[in-house]
Structure formats: C-alpha cells, structure tokens
Amino acid sequence: QVQLVESGGGLVQPGGSLRLSCAASGFTVSTYSLTWVRQAPGKGLEWVSGIDSGGTPYYTESVKGRFTVSRDNAKNALYLQMNSLKPDDTAVYYCTKSMVSWGKGTQVTVSS
To answer: What is the mean pLDDT of residues 31-38?
Structure first.
C-alpha cells in the first residue's frame, strides 16, 4: 500500500536551513504529482510546494526563492530544501501523493 514517511524537521534559528525528506513506497514517485502541505499552530492546511509527474516545480508565493522541491526517482523520494527560514514557516509539514495519500508529518520550528 501507499506509504509516505517524512523526516528532517527540527528546531532552527531564523535565517537557517532545513532539508525535509519524504520516503515513498507502494508507488513510483515519478508518475504522480507530489506536494508539501503545512499546518501552522492553530491554523488550517496550507499548500506549500509541489512537483508534477513531468518534474515541474510549483511554489506558494510566500516561499518562492527560499524553498526548493525536488525528487529522486532512484530513491523514490521527495525533498524540500528550505532556506532563509522565518518564524512564520513554523508548522507541521506533510508530504502527499496527489493530495490523496498523506504522511504523518514532520515538525519544523523556526525560533531564536
């Protein structure tokens, strides 16, 4: 069955960087759209970034120029490189397969 497991979250100071990983199993990442969605404390879900089956990346406006989404077909994994992190980026980050299958999330906290 489809399984998505996120990792790489943690506590980082403003301006720092983190790289999130999403290990996928039960399907081939290169044949589906994959997305990163986050949920900040007390707020709703926010779509952050995605990559379609052709490899084209997409970003919400607030992370453009700071985040980079990528996938490794050989490792069947999705990544999110996050640079210049801000306190507003604090959230649980989820990896999804076409917004249908979801991982359990990884916590990112940006604080001094």
So the answer is: 97
